[in-house]
Specification:
With about 260 residues, the chain is mainly α. It has helices spanning about 1-25, 45-50, 50-85, 90-105, 105-120, 125-150, 155-160, 165-195, 200-205, 210-220, 225-255.
Length: about 260
């Protein structure tokens, strides 16, 4: 039975990661078409990073991801505190809507946001893309921070209030430091979700503002070039690092 479980796990991981491994290996292949191995090279990374168009798209992606993660983390943290500490009409409905937002298919969210922007008469570009990214990152932050709040000792806040601290000071001096690992994990997760999003971004941005995932998508439609493998590898490595850091903060949070 253990052999069957191990074999099944190995097959699943191979199915998930073998295509990514092929892309990573091909990004270092000197052959232009990747049908055979012609030796190790970094030329495709140099070509990709030396392209002004690709560099601009990468910087746009980084800028949007940092802003979206920061704003979503701030709003999500306040939202989680509000849902946890206060009782108000529609509280459970709000929680349900946040969870539903996490399960809505990306294409549905992208189309709905596009319709909203068209109705409002907003030109598609940086601001609409930023709003869209904040929208789909927000519920992940709320869930992460809310889970941490449920594990906190509520008497700590009550003690701070009894000692004369205002709610704002108790939040700043007691709650936020204790939630720091969850807040950091929420930011890292939001950054990861934002920097490699394609579907929602496709419906939310215009021709005046291009991000790297959409640029790669447009390049792949006319054939997979070697520099695409290099860019795909970078897009895999960067979120992987942030996800690893997010898991580190989550484990640190569990240990506190």
């Amino acid at each position: 039975m253990n052999v069957l479980k191990s074999t099944y796990a190995i097959l699943v991981y191979c199915f998930l990661y073998l295509p990514i491994l092929v892309v990573v290996v091909q990004s270092f292949n000197a052959a232009k078409y990747g049908t055979s191995w012609k030796g190790f090279t970094l030329a495709w990374y140099e070509k990709a990073l030396g392209s002004p168009v690709l560099v601009e798209a990468a910087l746009n992606s980084l800028w949007v991801a940092v802003l979206a993660a920061t704003l979503a983390t701030g709003l999500g943290t306040l939202g989680a505190i509000c849902l946890f500490r206060y009782r108000f009409r529609g509280r459970e409905i709000m929680r349900g809507l946040l969870l539903a937002l996490m399960m809505i298919p990306d294409i549905v969210m992208g189309i709905s946001l596009l319709v909203l922007f068209v109705v409002l008469g907003w030109a598609l570009g940086f601001w609409t893309l930023l709003i869209a990214h904040i929208t789909f990152c927000l519920p992940f932050v709320v869930v992460t921070v809310y889970a941490r709040l449920r594990d906190l000792n509520p008497h700590l806040v009550e003690a701070a209030l009894d000692l004369g601290a205002s709610e704002w000071r108790a939040l700043r001096a007691v709650v936020i430091p204790l939630m720091a690992p969850a807040i950091a994990a929420g930011w890292l997760l939001s950054f990861t979700l934002s920097i490699d999003d394609v579907i929602v971004s496709f419906f939310s941005t215009g021709p005046t503002f291009e991000i790297l995932p959409l640029r790669i998508y447009s390049m792949v439609r006319v054939g997979v070039k070697p520099e695409v493998n290099a860019l795909a590898t970078l897009l895999f490595v960067v979120p992987f690092i942030f996800i690893t850091l997010s898991q580190f903060f989550s484990k640190e949070e569990e240990g506190t």
